[in-house]
Amino acid sequence: MKIFKPLSIFVLTLASAFIFINAGDSYLHDISNDCSIENTAIQGGEKIVYKAYYNWEFVWIPAGEAEFNIKENEDTYEITVVGKTYRGYDAFFRVRDYFHSVVDKKTMYPRSFVRIVEEGKYRKFDSLVFNQNQLNAVSFNGKSRSTAKRKVITIHQCTHDLLSVLYFMRNMNVAKHKPGDMIPTKILFDETIYPIKVRYEGKYDQFNIKDLGTFNTIKVIPDLVTGNVFKDGNRMHVWVTNDGNKLPLLIESPLSVGSAKAVLKSFSGLKYPFSLTSHKN
Q: What is the pLDDT of residues 154-191, one digit of tens each?
């Protein structure tokens, strides 16, 4: 039984969190014209670490961590995410996941993407090469690199991978929002294009994160894809910093069995300092 939320779903959740809070009135206009955006929000050297917890019978158990890093090249950004369970949790459900996306600096859309998953007995190798102009992506997908099968997938205009969408959306113009508004987008994930909708809930001031401090935040609720991980009808709750970085601080999610949350543990190399209203005690 999977009692640790797969990192694949966790990363998808983070992507969802960025979609609404950074999407302005110009969102649909911007991406439908030339599928590009100027980067003003990120830089090489950024590092963000999240700590994941699993709740079983009212007890929160520290399960593992996910680390996000950005490397800057001449014409691309390389985004790498490594997720793993703690050694003490490995006996219940061992996770060792790796994600890597190469993003074009001029457009902030992906050139390539690799996902290598080890979650319990589950194994997955997923490689994508995007041809945005030809509206297709070349996929190699299977249990391992050696057994992966090649497939050409037709994509929509301006299609993201699981990681590129996070950093693209951080560069969107922030517009005035009202509770209940929703913004859609699409992500190519595991040979399937997923539509995602995220509802804006409003601003929450003085939101405290243990060991980090107190922040002014925005709350959003991504729609969940139901199945063997999420229960039908449940909602994920995400609190995001209301500053230039727009980074998720806390994610709470119901699962088919129990619930899970991810909390920002540490950060460095950000383009802008966090807008702390007060520091940790």
A: 998 888 898 887 787 677 655 556 777 766 667 888 89
Q: What is the dihedral of CA 198, 233, 219, 266, to 10 degrees?
A: -100
Instruction: State yes or no: pLDDT of 31 exceeds 50.
Output: no
132-160: per-residue pLDDT in tens? 889 999 999 999 999 999 999 999 888 88
> DSSP characters for 120-171?
TTEEEEEEEEEETTTTEEEEEEESSTTTPEEEEEE--TT-B-TTHHHHHHTT
Range of the domain at 73: 7-197
What is the pLDDT at residue 126? 95
| Residue 180: inside a domain | yes
- The answer to whether 222 and 17 are in contact (CB under 8 A) is yes
Q: For residue 120, is it within any domain?
A: yes
Residue 223: DSSP 8-state: P
How long a stretch of residues is the chain?
281
CA distance 154 to 111: 15
Q: Are 87 and 93 in contact (CB under 8 A)?
A: no
Here the tokens at position 265 are 């543990």
Does residue 206 form part of some domain?
no
Q: How far is it, in rounded angstroms, from Cα 7 to Cα 117?
A: 9
Contact by Cβ (8 Å): 17, 198:
yes
Residue 103 falls inside a structural domain: yes
**What domain count does the chain have?**
1
Paired tokens of 237: 């709750």
